[in-house]
Amino acid sequence: MIYRTIKCKNAQKPAQRYMVCATKSAFLNKKLAYMEKKQFLCNRILNLEINIKHFKTYNYVRN
Fold first, then answer.
1. CA 5 to chain centre
2. Which domain of life is it from (predicted)?
């Protein structure tokens, strides 16, 4: 069972806007895992780009 924080549309108080719900559906679990993997890969690519820019700037300043 996977727990996710979801936004509630009919929340009475600000504290109730988000609630934790358990997803039992295999399809939802697979889709969420795919989305998390995609987000992870995007973050990795972004971090690599930032590191390359930083490295180029560092070498430019050093030389």
1. 12
2. Bacteria
b/e code 26-39 from CB counts within 10 Å (16+ = b): eeeeeeeeeeeeee
Per-residue pLDDT of the chain (63 residues; tens, 9 = 90+): 555 666 666 656 555 555 556 656 677 777 778 888 888 888 888 888 888 877 776 666 665
As a three-state string, the secondary structure of 6-58 is: EECCCCCCHHHCEEEEEECCHHHHHHHHHHHHHHHHHHHHHHHHHHHHHHHHH
Q: What is the pTM of this model?
A: 0.41
Sign of the alpha-carbon dihedral angle for 35, 37, 41, 47:
positive
Tokens of 5: 């924080």
